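User: Sequence for Cell division protein FtsX below. Tokens please.
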Amino acid sequence: MNRATDNPMPSLADTEVSPIPPPRRGRSERPQSRLGTWFDHHVYSLVASLGRMLRKPWATALTVGVMAVAIALPLGLWAALSNVQRFAGDVQQARQISVFLKPQVALDRARVLADTLRARADIAQVELRTPEQGLLELRQASGLGEAISTLDGNPLPSLLVVTPKGDEALLAASLQTLPEADLVQHDADWRARLDGWLRFGTRLAWVLAALLGLGALLVVGNTVRADIQSRREEIGVLQLLGATDGFIRRPFLYLGACYGLVAGALALGLLTAADAALREPLLELARSYGSGFVLRGFDLLRAGGVVLGAGALGWLGAGVVTGHYLRQTRPTQT
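Assistant: Structure tokens for Cell division protein FtsX:
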């Protein structure tokens, strides 16, 4: 007895992954339109693909797990770089400028100059460090206390540590014109180096995304290829009956897309778990430096894009493998 006739609408667990939708019963029914047949076959292919995955839980878990790790690694690196760029922006805004005064500038004059600079709109804070404070810090930090003690007098000048509000470069140029200023230390090279490292990290994230994305595509392609090999006789019969390549390919495309969608959701779960594990230690570290920096994960829009992108990757892998198989078998069947 024909199985499809006995059970025209199989359950998800018993669904056979077949591109042939179950026939409709009843002679009184009108012939279904071409659009309706096309839609029914899409629905049946999706349900059949899910049933295929559920009937092989171990193989499905391996495929989805490998794809999820391959997707999570570049996404995690990209998220880390985004947080570093945000943190670097905060650091750049709080960058300090060191103004070394001329040795002949008296301490009283240095205090007056500090008060004058505090009144400027482009300066957030000014800290005066006397020569005695500078010498003490040098003795404690350098470990050359005995050598420094042999010096005659204090060779260090007064130092003004200026915290800018606006443009750091313009403020440094303005402070350089002060008659009391001997040297204005505004090291912009660190910013260029940081930007260079961030650009390198971004390029590295794209390279890893390409390589691991290719790996994920090969994984789902190999899984779909195994399904194709197990049904090659059925595919050959369909080709002899005149079935189009799109008709044969459709269930495998949905199978690859399902693998990708589940893998994308699992990758987001892995990144969420990593964020939860790192958030509290990082928050404590930021608090020790007086900062409120916290990690930012993926918002709802980006998370949806990740899942859909993973599904598209699985669809593409299944399409490449199925198309290659059909191109090789079509001439031998005609």
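DSSP finds eleven helices and four strands in the chain.
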